[in-house]
Amino acid sequence: MEDNGGLGGTYDKLVCQEDFDDIDEYSLHSNQENQQASVSILRLGSRIQSRSVAVSLTVLALLLLSTDIGLGVYYRQLRDGHRTISDITSELANLQGVYSAAIQSRDEVRRQLSKELNEQKVTKWELEHQQSRGKEYEKQADKLKVDIAMLSSHVPLITEGCRHCLPGWTFANSQCYYLAFSDALPRRSWQDARTFCKKQGGDLVVTDTREKHLAVHDLINTYHIPIRHTHLTGFWIGLRDVEEEGTWRWLDGSLLTEGYWNFGEPNNQGEEDCAATYPKENPFRTWNDAPCGYSLKWICEMEPRS
Questions:
Q1: Is residue 288 part of a domain?
Q2: Using the 8-state DSSP alphabet, how is residue 305 labeled?
Q3: What is the domain-level CATH number for residue 269?
Q4: Boundaries of domain holding 257
């Protein structure tokens, strides 16, 4: 029939109740075994997982312990380093104080040294000054000795001068001479100097012989003051060329036969018509020509008293 056929089309074969029972019993038994196996597996997995957790915790604990130890060591090192830094800072402060004191001491020593050097410099200058003064005193002493010796040698001349010449005149080479050395007598022109001599009873000196010239030269070099300038040390003598340029005549009109001119003289620069003698070392180079209006000292000459 169609319905049965349909039912038969639905199930390929018929299964009896015993087969179902066997199947259920087998399935149940299999399920129980499977469950037991699963439980065992779960227990085994749980054990393995617990062991892993324990191992992990142990490792973590070891890591934490080592970290703690490391941190302790680091903290100790850090604390020791801080103490070291504190010690270094303290020592640096002490060294800074010592350095500052050394700098102050050095500056004080420098100031003291500079003061002593300045005092030494002043002392050196004073010593040089005293040595210079000593040398000057020695020169003055030597000059005084020479002057004393010369004056001593001229004592006979002065004595004879007192006998044969007016006061202030010097007796030499059988003549009386007046040399206007004194600063109280101002320098004069050639004509004014001659007027002075004539008022005293004499005239400007005439050195027309070698002996007279050397005698006057010695008197000039004996009494003149060396520190004066050369142009202030000249003395008028009784010689000029006013009548004819280049023709030199003495006061009595006699011609000059032998002159004692300095090198290059007479040169007649600016109407130099009068002669003057100067204190030179070389007695044969002592004359210069000069303008008659020029102001110089002078030498007078007079015959001695009998």
A1: yes
A2: P
A3: 3.10.100.10
A4: 169-302
Give 227-268 pLDDT, tens digit per residue.
556 667 899 999 999 989 889 999 999 999 999 999 999 998
How many structural domains comprise the chain?
1
Domain annotation covers residue 223: yes
Cβ neighbourhood burial of 169 (10 Å; 0-12, 13-18, 19+): buried
Residues 67-103 have pLDDT tens digits of 878 777 777 777 777 777 888 888 888 888 899 999 9
Q: What is the pTM of this model?
A: 0.50
Residue 266: cis peptide before it, omega within 30 degrees of 0? yes
Query: For residues 183 and 89, which has the higher predicted lDDT (pLDDT)?
Result: 89
**Paired strand residues for 255:** 249
One-letter amino acid of 271:
E
268: phi > 0 → left, psi -120 to 50 → alpha, else beta; which? left
Cα dist. 80→68, 69, 75, 85 in Å?
18, 16, 8, 9
Determine the distance from the C-alpha atom of residue 298 to the mean position of all C-alpha atoms in its chain, rounded to a whole number.
Answer: 54
Query: How far, in Å, CA of 77 to CA of 154, rounded?
Result: 111
Q: How many Å apart are CA 237 and CA 204, to the nearest integer?
A: 5
Tens-place pLDDT, residues 26-82: 555 555 655 555 555 566 666 666 777 777 888 888 888 878 787 777 777 777 777
